[in-house]
Fold these 2 entries.
Entry 1:
Amino acid sequence: MSGLGGGQFWVGQRPSTVSAALNELASAWTVAMGRPAVTRRTWLDTADFRLYRRGMALMVTAGEDDDEPTLELSGADGPTVTAGLGTLDRPCLPASLPPWLRPRLEPVLGVRALLPVVEVTGTIVSGSLLDAEGKTVVRLVHERPATILGGRDRLPGGLWLVPLRGYAAVGARAARIAQRAGLVRADRVGYPAALLAAGIDPDGIRPAMEPGLPARVAVARMLVSFLDEMEAAWGGTVKDVDIEFLHDFRVAVRRSRSAVKLLGDVLPPALVAWGTPQLKWLGDLTTPSRDLDVLLQQLPSLTGGLSGARPEDIEPLERELIDRRAAAQSALVRGLLSARFARFRARWRASLEGLAGWDGRPRAGPTAATIAIERLALAERRVLRRGSRITDVSPAEALHDLRKRAKELRYLLEIFTPVLGPGDARGSVKELKALQDVLGTFQDSEAQRDAIHALATDLIARGGVSTRTILAMGEIAARLQVDQDSSRERFADMFERFARRPVQRRASRPEQLRAAPTRAAATATAGRMR
Amino acid sequence: MRTSGMKVVATYNIKGGVGKTSTAVNLAYLASRDGLRTLLWDLDPQGSATYLFRVKPKVKGGGAAIVAGKRTLDDAIKGTDFDHLDLMPADFSYRHLDFDLDSRKRPTDRIRRLITPLKGEYDVVILDCPPSVSLVSENIVHACDVLLVPLIPAVLSVRTYDQLVEFVDGMPGRKPQVMAFVSMVDRRKKSHREFADQLPRERASVVAEAIPNRAVIEQMAQERAPVPVFAPTSTAATSYEALWARVQSCWNHTGR
């Protein structure tokens, strides 16, 4: 990402180096600099840095005067686009983006909201290098060191050299002069530089689990990292910034529950006995809101192209879902702001952090590698056993149960990625994910159909709903039934593929793992469970 | 702001000195000011538009290299002092453009094919054409969506315009929307006022947005900038703004 389109950012050891470079440039061209302007630059992104990960940056620039702030979108593979900001909600959901921005950003943002990530205030002086005709050949932007809001560090200043189209040779000459004057080309500019200066690391990875760690320490550290994820998603869930915060919160809760269930025997029994119902409470607390989020999100595709329904027939259903979602959100927020949740956070963290320390000396009991192999084998056997029993006439509960076991296996694979090696884990997760997708569609279709039936019953009982709305809901339920039937048909094939390449055959290599018990495996978690 | 697909506007008249270049330069500036990625191609070997934007009137290999495809427009385009506005400079060799075009296959379609690859890069291309009836003019008519014709307030200019409309109507294949406006109107003269008021009523393709004959337009050569840059509140600037709005409404309504 170059920041200013086609330009280069040059920085010096001292702020005076830029002035020296400008003096040198003035010997070859006329340097015309404008008036210094104090500007506030705010980079926006989603909580999980979706723009950053795509090499994009979205910056709002506001001056001291009353001029309208400008919004600038730059992308790794697209031109920089600048426009007047107008109004932009903060947080801003994709649906409320300005029309020129929405098609560019919606595919990247998905359902996530844009939030201010880094805000800096500093002085910027714009100018030009003019040739003998008085024509601009290179644009100059002198950024003085800027203050980061809420931070101690400063965003380093420097000089942008932006040659105009057709003046690349002039730009190259200007760059050589800048270099001779003591400036060096910055390798990180714009948004990535601002993130670095603000101490934000979007590429930060979960602490690696070393195979030789005592199992208790490894599991405690893992649970601490899940608690970190819960806390990171807590604020956005309470404020209802976007529906992914709740989703992230739930994923962290589910991972914690699975870890406690499958690996909890290495933790103190009293802690497991206390933590298990707390985590279940959090799971139950968050389920109604999440189910309604999913249903509302899928409503356009569920209602698109219904044969007998008009948009106004769907409206009562949508209104009802929105009302129910608001009620569920209130209950969720009450729970997340409750003393019970505060107590859980504090005690769970204190207990786990007390277990997570290790001085490196050998301890009695299993290592992370040992339990990885053992528990993966156990979890996989469960999936294979339950899956092989499923036939075309098995009750839906059997598939639901298999889905839960498959999730547990998936979590274990993700948790033990550093122990297994990323290649092994990725390959295993791929087939498992395909199986999970089928099982997920099967269960979600059923849950949504049941929800539609329950809603229809309520609406009829309350009265005032049109027959056409009820018929539309019937059609939606029928579609969901078709989806569920189709998932069941695909299940056998997906399960066979999974069973043909068992996780253990590739992942379980005890000799290798035991031979290298202290191998540092700083690898990112493979394909997170969504 | 974006248009649906690249739009090509050509300022053209058989006669010289009627305000083609002033119109091309000011409309190109206004388009870029609206945020549209704009290219102005100065096809006139005199290079007046190129001079106004302070760019050297030089294209490596000349018009022949461009027409022959030995050099692309991309190689020769220059950025101007204004955001979103680029210039394809004039070159004195453009005086031989007819000859260069004639030596190619499908000579009347060459300019259209030269600008087609710029579709993803520009929203608006404005062609500032030399005054003549030639292969270059025929190319321009084939290449543009809107043929913008400045008419000076004189009876003979209407006669020439009618000939142009007849020529375009008789052209095979794709035709541009022909839009004329009255240029260099001196409101102190009764004949000019009557001309500028009546002609749009008599001919549907002549729009009511006229450009006055003002000293500020002459000053473009001294200032070397479009009128709205150095005289933003002048009558001339507001007249060009009105004309630009009219051109845009033309392609918004016709989908051109």
Entry 2:
Amino acid sequence: MGEGGNRKILVVDDEPDAIEFVRAVMEEAGYEVVSASSGDEGIQAALAERPDLIILDVQMPGKDGFTTFAEMRANADLKGIPVAMLTGVGEKTGIRFSAEDMGDYIGAEPEAYVEKPIEPETLVQTVRSLLGG
Amino acid sequence: MAKLVVISGTTDQQEFALADEAVIGRSRNCEVTVSGPSVSRRHARIIRNGAGYAVEDLGSANGTRVNGQPVQTLDLAHGDVIGIGHFKFAFQLDDEEAPAPRPAALQTGRPTVMAAVDLGGTLTDEALASPLAAARLRMHMEVLQEIAEASCGALEIDGLVRLILGQLLRVYPQADHAHALLLGLREGNEDLSLSAASPGDDGTGPGMSRTLLEIALAERRAVLAADVGENEELSVAASIVGHSLNSMMCCPLVVGSRALGAIQVDTASAGAPFNEDDLQLLVTIAGHASTAAENARLHGEMVAQQRLAAVGEAVSSVAHCIKNVLNGLKGGSYILDLGIKKQEPERISKGWEMVKRNTAFMSDLVRDMLAYCRKGGLRREPTDVGEMLNETVLMVRESAAQKGIEVSLDGPGKPVVVHLDAAGIKRAVLNLLTNAIEACPEGSRVTVSAGTEEMGSLLRISVRDDGPGIPPDVRERLFEAFFTTKGSSGTGLGLALVHKMAEEHGGRVELESEPGEGAAFHIIISTRREEEETSVE
């Protein structure tokens, strides 16, 4: 929960422009937005800010989106946070881990995928449906 | 006659005929010109020595390999694979006695089958017992060894088939013609069909017998037959003395349960028609030929797929870049609209900046792609190297300083004027600079330096940084087009362009780097004015 009862969203993307875009859209829709520019920063920020939802980019240099996602799901403090993956391809780019590897955690896949270029309406609806309003 | 067939790496030609000496290297003066960062200007040569050929490394930077092993000098055998940089060539010796093949014409006479042998049949104990059998067996072994050796290195179907046809004519001295049919191997699923005739043949003989072919393929057996050729009025008895009795053998080429095609030999020599021993030998030859043909076919497919995969990767890389740019443009417009709607000048400004930035990136990407695909056409003019580099450094110094990175120019000590494509070299140095600035943390230093070497015949421009360095696995792929470590903000073409620019100037790029020890990129080009390249080793 953010200040003033607003839901808080964490955006993780190496592209500053992409972060600005998501921030503008989500703030317009009434959410509070915090951001991180890499997988590692994203995990730190998630632990520090305890967002209600994480929007995570798939393609980042260094630690990519799926690896970051796997680490978040493996973390007891973070695994309950729903994740929407930002992807640049028309279909899911493949999951490289399995339930057996990850042990007990909620869900083997991100809760949603959002395609780039982002359609503001679609993003807002996706987030709303994941957070229930 | 010998030749090199390219089996790995992209080149202008698929095959290179070899004369008495052929030098392989990057220089355009070489008989075999291949270009790549790991190929030296004069890398190796293949020379005729006596009846054969040998390969000799010419002091190349990365060495020469034969069948995977590094060599200095080595006599070559047919089928050897020569490795130079990331290129691989198969060395092939054509059989000089084999007559040139021509497309087979199918004829539709009706042959009489006189014997048939199962494929992969074994010799019976009785057959092995006779003294004649021992002599025949030995001959068979020799022939098979020849064929196996000759065909095991052949990776290109046409050459392989010609080789086998030549061997068939040698093995059966009475044969007038040998034919081979490989199903569906040509474009549009057409069959590959070749024939060879023995020396002295006037080439008007019968083509491959369609009927015999059908019998052999249907029964999956080798068949021996005779027919009365074109003169159908003669009875078999009468034509034994005459000249239109053909003795023929046909054996299918089979791999597993798949028929690849068939081989056939025929003779009009009434005194020496083929017999069952000949047929048995044909079965074994066909066995080897089938395996070799299948191998060659699979190899061809694999090479084609690799090429497609490379194109696919490049296209997908470009598409990905463009999607990110579109995302940035969309974002910028969205923020711009919001700013206008809410009358917030800061937002308007921010949105507009995003649009401009992404449009510029798109423009850069297109320019880089076009530059990368452009074939030749440098605009060389006398250029003051110091001035050129100074301008380049100025372009990035401020934005680098904002990141806390110092960019400086070191040298050249005295004015150096070189005939080069200033715009191109500037672009290359700029690419190296922006890479260094992006990769380095605050407090780092990037230094551009220039100087001449080898008594003024070479110009070396270096971009050195004290940043994190480049790990070996990345170093290997660094100059590949579309390879980037920058996620969505790299075009992957920056270094590929640097490499291309250096090569077009008859020079090269070198990289020194270890993780933790920074990186130094060197562009080394010739200072000579003529088209002819000087020795850049």
